[in-house]
Design brief:
heterodimer, A: alpha+beta, five-stranded mixed β-sheet, 2 helices, B: alpha+beta, 12% strand, Cytochrome P450 (chain B), heme (chain B)
Chain lengths: 105, 399
């Protein structure tokens, strides 16, 4: 079972079990994780589920649609930036860590 | 009990006039007793709880734009951005979205909207009573939108008349002829105004919203059709003028009623928070509808494929399961995000622009009117699909 760790802006770490096939955003919402807003509900239309992936190179590539929306995040975009609704959890992840930005709006 | 369309007498007795006056008491009863139910007066299901509305809107495989949508088609044209799906919808959004994305908005919003808001605020009386909706919030909202679209020369009064006429048609669910006839006249007038601007932008594009409607996402050397442009323009006009000014008006009403206006005067950085709560408290657009693509069971209610479902975001935003004392405006509220911008692929394109415009409007207002209170004339509010204070009379005294 993949394990997801979210690091909140204040440094708090929240570790939860992920389920293959769900998006990182869906897991975060199910946990009521603060800092992931996901206003559009997972359609890459709002850029309010922005996260920084610690191991971005282990994730599937950014699609054109996600790339476009990543240009509109409230916190700065970095090479580690992803929209968590567009990142599907995979069984072979083992452990994966995501930093939650200071702001989404 | 008599057998009726829903099997529940009070639901069969729901009429649009009661919804129009104040839908919130009815939403509360629906959430408690029948959170997903067929309402004969709407010939559709009404879904009123937060988690289910959010999930339904997000699931774009389950809910598509209704196949028969006479009012919106009549007002905004066939396959308009509100009701299109798939490739057509993607093209519509490609034409509308570029100047409305956060990255674009943050680049121009201060230069574009701040001078308009400051100018309108400077016209307000230093002391006295006025309707802040008509005298300030709607003018800032309409002029801000017009500047973004690239029609800043059109007088504010004209824009407001266009807006109110189109809204009258878009909300004409009883299909009266007069609102459509009046909107046809206004659309003809709009085309006369836009045509020379569009002709110029064809060969001389700029960063304006209209220019993007012409060119964005199109293959080189081709432009979007006039019909598509006018359709998108009318929708931007209605949505764009409505959300910012009306969200700001609702927010202001909440702050003044609860006695917390002074807090945003003391700390204008609270204004985005105040606006988010205003949008939650009274959603400017109360609901959106979808048609189910397959059978689904919600709250124990079995909906066959092809069911039309009104996702009432206004009700979801008050859901007791998610918000305590949701009927009250509370500046420092915690809890989930409101659903007033909808969700899924039809998530409001103008959400960033609207919030930023409303923020600047309130920032300039608190700067010139630090001592504001509700006037005796009070406020007037009606509407269930479109709801916000139509008038909001305030009294200001010299600081």
């Amino acid at each position: 079972m993949p394990t997801l760790t979210f690091v909140l802006p204040d440094g708090t770490r929240r570790t939860v079990e992920g389920k293959a096939g769900l998006s990182v955003m869906e897991v975060a919402m199910a946990e009521d994780l603060p800092g992931i807003v996901a206003e559009c509900g997972g359609n890459a239309m709002c850029a309010t589920c922005h996260v920084y992936a610690d191991a971005a190179d282990r994730l599937p590539p950014v699609s054109d649609v996600e790339d476009e929306m990543l240009g509109s995040t409230a916190a700065p975009r970095t090479p580690a930036s992803r929209l968590s609704c567009q990142v599907e959890i995979a069984d072979d992840w083992d452990e994966m860590t995501f930093d939650v930005p200071e702001t989404q709006l | 009990m008599a057998v009726t369309a829903s099997g529940i007498r009070w639901i069969d007795d729901i009429d649009i006039a009661a919804l129009e006056a104040d839908p919130y008491p009815l939403y509360a009863r629906l959430r408690a007793e029948a959170p997903c139910v067929f309402v004969p007066a709407l010939n559709a299901y009404l879904l009123t709880t937060y988690d289910e509305v959010r999930a339904f809107l997000a699931d774009t495989d389950l809910g598509r734009a209704p196949s028969v949508q006479p009012v919106l088609e009549r007002t905004f044209g066939p396959e308009n951005i509100l009701i299109a799906d798939g490739a057509v919808h993607r093209d519509r959004r490609a034409s509308v979205d570029p100047p409305l994305r956060r990255g674009a908005v943050s680049g121009y919003i201060e230069d574009l909207v701040r001078p308009i808001a400051a100018q309108e605020a400077a016209r307000l009386p230093v002391s006295g009573t006025y309707d802040v909706v008509a005298e300030y919030l709607e003018p800032v909202s309409t002029r801000g939108l017009a500047a973004m679209l690239g029609i800043g020369d059109v007088p504010s009064e004209t824009l407001r008349r266009w807006f109110h006429t189109i809204i009258g048609a878009a909300g004409n669910y009883t299909f009266q002829e007069e609102p459509f006839r009046r909107s046809d006249e206004v659309v003809a007038e709009i085309k006369d105004v836009l045509e020379p601007i569009l002709t110029r932008l064809e060969t001389d594009p700029d960063g304006s919203g209209l220019s993007h409607l012409l060119h964005a996402g199109m293959p080189p050397g081709r432009i979007r059709s006039r019909e598509d442009i006018y359709s998108a323009f009318l929708i931007e006009l209605t949505g764009g003028m409505q959300e910012p000014g009306h969200a700001a008006a609702t927010t202001l009403l909440g702050l003044l009623r609860e006695g917390t206006y002074g807090e945003i005067v003391a700390d204008p950085d609270l204004i985005p928070t105040a606006l988010a709560e205003g949008l939650r408290w009274i959603a400017p657009i109360g609901g959106v509808f979808r048609e189910t693509t397959r059978a689904v069971t919600i709250h124990g209610q079995e909906l066959p494929p092809g069911s039309v479902v009104w996702c009432m975001v206004a009700s979801a935003n008050h859901d007791e399961r998610r918000f305590s004392d949701g009927g009250r405006y509370q500046l420092r509220r915690s809890g989930p995000t409101h659903l007033s911008f909808g969700g899924g692929r039809h998530f409001c394109a103008g959400n960033v622009f609207g919030r930023e415009l409303a923020r600047i409007a309130l920032e300039e207002l608190v700067a010139v009117a630090p001592a504001l209170r509700l006037a005796e004339a009070g406020w007037a509010m009606k509407g269930w699909l479109f709801r916000s204070p139509q008038q909001l009379h305030v009294t200001t005294v010299e600081a």
